[in-house]
# Entry
Amino acid sequence: MKEIKHFINGAFVGSASGRTFEDINPANGQVIGQVHEAGRVEVDTAVKAARAALKGPWGKMSVAERAEILHRVADGITARFDEFLEAECLDTGKPKSLASHIDIPRGAANFKVFADLLKNVANEAFEMATPDGAGALNYGVRRPKGVIGVISPWNLPLLLMTWKVGPALACGNCVVVKPSEETPLTATLLGEVMQAAGVPAGVYNVVHGFGGDSAGAFLTEHPDVDAYTFTGETGTGETIMRAAAKGVRQVSLELGGKNAGIVFADCDMDKAIEGTLRSAFANCGQVCLGTERVYVERPIFDEFVARLKAGAEALVIGPPDDASSNFGPLVSLKHREKVLSYYQQALDDGATVVTGGSVPDMPAHLAGGAWVQPTIWTGLTDDSAVVTEEIFGPCCHIRPFDTEEEAIELANSLPYGLASAIWTENSSRAHRVAGQIEAGIVWVNSWFLRDLRTAFGGSKQSGIGREGGVHSLEFYTELKNICVKL
Ligand code: NDP
# Structure
């Protein structure tokens, strides 16, 4: 049985209260380990350690020195690839085939990309005329924002956490991370890698626990944290924003979505099916960018539904170690309850169940896992909760449309605005439609294709701010103007 401790000021420590909670393997329902639950004491110690480290060597290091250390962090993750893979798959149940391509390599890449980026970013400079004719020179310098609270979700635990920690550290900040209570392992393991890479004590801290009235809330209420970066549900984002308002702390929020896929009759059907299968069912549908609403132009509607059904039914449901499996369980039985409540809602609202709709039969040793069938519906009205609310499960509703204008209106009809995917071989249409979709990211003939130098974030209720590339600097640094009268 593992004992999962906090990582504070360069050391693994338990909770003063002795309180722990269980970390459960969602593939079989078995307990992986006992996780220490942080109280205000541990959160406060972690914040103090981060503040002290900021004043120590980390805050004074050159960008190049920090970059070298962060490269060692990335290399350290790669060197212990199998351990990270095992930990991530134990916590999430996701297929190793998926996590070995996405979660772990991208988690490592997040340290190198931002460390390198920082080395090459220029700041602005303006010469200015003054009445005495001597002039003045303005130039910008960037300084770390300070202590950053990082609150991350369970769907891509290492990837989404390092997506924040990588740029935060590259910019010279120190962090206190609160991973989801469902997925504490990789954030903890990263503490060992940080130590081995020579990251000074206090720069990277991890406190475990729950959200409300626990570590998450204690962190967001802590007065000595300068800014918060959060990925998770829109409602939690609102709570964090309220907490951060005290003391006027900045927030970067990457929140929920109810993303639309738009499939035009002039699409390449093979590409559209392959892409929509991934966007609806990858990671058991637990991807914020995933497609839960699919709009298909009427002439190809029946063919599209039939082919997506065939694709969904060909997915191989199984545990992480099964090399043939490409479809794992949901993250927890609690989350399955939520997803199944929408499956029931779809029936109550009169949906046609094209495929799935319930829990698959699993062998006895996996029966305690959070398994659910990939599910496709048609026939719901646009106001059904199944079509308007984020389910975060392996499911989508498909609806026909007749005109481009109608498709755009449908895609934009909800308060969310995270991502969208358009499938068409007509490039004028692709640009025209992409420009009108209200979302932070629009893919044309692809999905989940990410260049880390580009802006990432949601519009409307899907988030505030952009991270990625130089956009991360806006959040993780203070841009200061120095004005010199000559
Ligand atoms: P939650 O909002 O439930 O939780 C996210 C994190 O916030 C967890 O660590 C959670 O802790 C913590 N938390 C919860 N309540 C509070 C609180 N009151 N104060 C401080 N921290 C709190 O999201 P999920 O973990 O369920 O993740 C799924 C959600 O994330 C989906 O809505 C999805 O769309 C979104 N998401 C968005 C992405 C984006 O880039 N826009 C990317 C990936 C996911 P604990 O788990 O312990 O309760």
Observations:
- The pocket of NDP is lined by residues 151-155, 160, 178, 180-182, 210-212, 216-217, 220, 231-233, 236, 239-240, 254-257, 288, 390, 392, 418, 458, 462-463 (CB under 6 Å).
- The chain has two domains: 2-255+462-485, 259-451.
- The first strand starts at residue 2 and ends at 4.
- The chain is about 40% helix and 20% strand.
